[in-house]
Specification:
Layout: H1 3-15, E1 18-19, H2 28-37, H3 56-68, E2 72-76, H4 79-94, E3 98-100, H5 106-109, H6 114-119, E4 122-124, H7 135-139, E5 147-151, H8 164-176, E6 180-185, H9 192-195, H10 199-203, E7 208-212, E8 223-227, H11 229-241, H12 250-262, H13 267-281, E9 288-290, E10 298-303, H14 307-321, E11 323-324, E12 330-331, E13 338-343, H15 353-365
Parallel strand pairs: 1-11, 3-4, 3-5, 5-6, 6-7
Antiparallel strand pairs: 2-8, 7-8, 9-10, 10-13, 12-13
InterPro entries: ArAA_b-elim_lyase/Thr_aldolase (IPR001597), PyrdxlP-dep_Trfase (IPR015424), PyrdxlP-dep_Trfase_major (IPR015421), PyrdxlP-dep_Trfase_small (IPR015422)
Keywords: Pyridoxal phosphate
Pfam families: Beta_elim_lyase
Length: about 375
Amino acid sequence: MTNDFQQRRFAAYRSAGRLLSGTRPQSLREGLAALADGPDPGYDLDQRPDVYGDGVVRALEERVAALLGLPDAAFFPTGTMAQQVALRYWADRTGSRVVAMHPLAHPEVHERRALTRLTGLHTVWPTAEPRLPTPDELRSCEEHFGTVALELPLRDAGFVLPTWSELTATVGAARELGARVHLDGARLWESTPHLGHSLPEICALADSVYVSCYKTLGGLSGALLAGDGAFVREARVWRHRYGGQIFRQWPAALSALAGLERELPLLEGYVTHAREIAAALATIPGARVNPSPPHTHQFQLWLPYGADALAEAGLRLAEEQGLALFGHWAPSAVPGRSMTEVTVAGPATEWSGDEVVEAVTALLALLKP
């Protein structure tokens, strides 16, 4: 995607009358204004700025630890760094450099093999099916592992979640095998409706948990690792060694606190509305929604057209009719079929199913000569 196309899309989506997937893009000036005038982050803004992780950063850590029902948490600039620290900690404790995870997990797909190149850890895949491994798959895994990393939800499989009984059975099998359990919970916040249990109940299954500050919550950046006191103390040591002990991080911390205030209470409603939006999209000829119904407020939409054609048609629809529907389109292994990820957040709650069908019909009309 060229810079010119990205700039066109930024301008069109920013000024569109209606937006379906995700949140409206902001200019730098608008982002600064939102940080200053947004929801009350629950922190005294007359306090001094943070210095190397104290102040507002520490307040965020304590707030997230309490929400997850865990003793402590440490703020990291990125989830990539946070998860490397967590997994190397458990490797040192178990004596095994092997981590069981899914081949579609974030460290395998989106981190340039950082886990192996920087930490010397290795991965084994108990299953390649688009779901979490079953207890039998863990027990019959071809290689011994010391840690199991479970991504909840598994984003690249379609933001899919197990049932609560499946999750507890998988965790139980890991324990039976003597393994530690780490939750890649970048999007854990929106997983409670499908699992039917609270954040503390979910996190109690694991030895450590990672959550994102910007996915779902809409913060500027950052992540947190949570666990017991010994785990978090050493995580902070490795954060410093990895270069994550940043002088000041108050904008990221404040935006995350604001996201906890603003977005967290709305997530169950987003998940409910995502099912209505997905059901409407599934009626479009040739469309496929995955999973159906969605497990969270995010899901995949597949259409039988080329990615470039869909991207250009979507941009024209936003520019000419003020309707901004979807973000990035990715081509599939099947020629002529493409996928986009749909995020049902605040803007999408203003759409009915019938309005979605009408807008997508207008999008597809722009594909025709």
